[in-house]
Amino acid sequence: MDQFEIVGGRKIKGTVKISGSKNAALPCLFATLLTDEPCQLDHVPQLDDIDIAIKLLVVLGKQVTRDRDQVVITHGTNLTGKAPYELVRRMRASVLVMGPLLARMGRARVSLPGGCAIGARPINYHLEGFKRMGVKIEIEEGYVKAGCDSLKGAVISLPYPSVGATENLMMAAALAKGETVIQKAAREPEIVDLGRMLMGMGVPIEGLGSSRIKITGVSTLSGVNHRVIPDRIETGTFLIAAAVTKGDLTLKGVDLSHLDDVVQVLRKSGLSIKEVEGGVRARWVKKLKPIDVATAVYPGFPTDMQAQWIALMSVIPGRCRVRETVFENRFLHVQELFRFGADIHLDGRDAIIHGGTHLSGCSVMASDLRAGAALVLAGLAAKGKSTILRVYHLDRGYEQMEVKLRKCGAQIRRTNPVK
Ligand code: UD1
After folding, report:
1. CATH number of this structure's domain 22-227, picked from the four choices 3.65.10.10, 3.40.30.10, 3.90.420.10, 3.30.70.270
2. Single pTM value for the model
3. Catalytic residue among 39, 116, 148, 408
4. 330 CB less than 6 Å from ligand 1?
5. Least CB-packed of 5, 21, 255, 347 within 10 Å?
């Protein structure tokens, strides 16, 4: 298993090209199941999760060719309706094939994803939404067996603006009979991106980016060329890398409007963030201040930035509180940050951070993708050598993270102690 070795305590300085968004690319890849015509996706990051999504498309009957960040999906053999446990357990977002499969075939057999390091993460909102569209659901041998005579448009009020449920239902609604209205829909930029792609395939959609999305089902969808939006979480992680190392980074190919809240709190903390041609420059110019945050659905502070924020707050003198409201168990990184010497107290959904301790390098283990990012940030700030184990979590969602950091002067390398 690969690991990162980091010698921390260096300012990082340079230019980073931000990749396409993983969380936008995944539903867009699965949306290609809705058509037999060729689709081309550009700006798709090269990540382990994307590899799994492509494997799943092939298992389901698509042909996929890939050239760097461009993926072309064409009709393969006839579609099959089964998403196997081997792939779904490796990536929960695989459940997003259910909507398109139901829409195309009237049936789907998708493995239940099982537990997850950051919480129970059920898919009941997805399933209840499908039921409203006329789908019968059974759980059999660990699989969701879903089927219907024809998908009918419906008014679906989600109990919570779930990103995945909104995406799954939007894809099902694209080929359903009549109109579907999703109330309390998620508003994340990734939803808007998927909606733009579906519109490009001929689906009339209103209300993208609002909490009420109306989709008018059509009988067939055409192929599409679609460019995936920049990764806002990678962007935010590198902004924090500049802050935590007292560095100076210019990030290219970003869309700052997608991370308003993160930019606002970083500015409030004292980081200089200025738009420059083709990107944004983040520069440490003065001592940063601790700032409380509470994660929330978009446009609030993203839960996918919470771990990185705690890493930053650990090195800034003063006390602050970080509240996690989206997932019930998303503080596994805190135990590892203790090993660096961070002073953090957990109290239910709150992490109280007494920042300003000098972190010292150590060996730590990533428990999930964003927790791994927080440990890399702590390693960059810490004095001495750190080893981050289980970087396969990072490879799921950060394209060439260590290469991008090294180009900016970080002392980080990937090693594989087994070989
Ligand atoms: C997506 C993102 C993930 C991000 C999360 C929240 C992808 C591939 N992943 O995950 O990186 O952290 O949004 O921004 O885009 N819930 C239920 N029942 C459901 C669905 C969700 O109880 O049927 C709960 C979840 O357990 C969680 C909350 O709702 O507590 C939010 O989940 P959701 O928005 O669905 O997240 P994902 O789509 O899984």
Report:
1. 3.65.10.10
2. 0.97
3. 116
4. no
5. 347
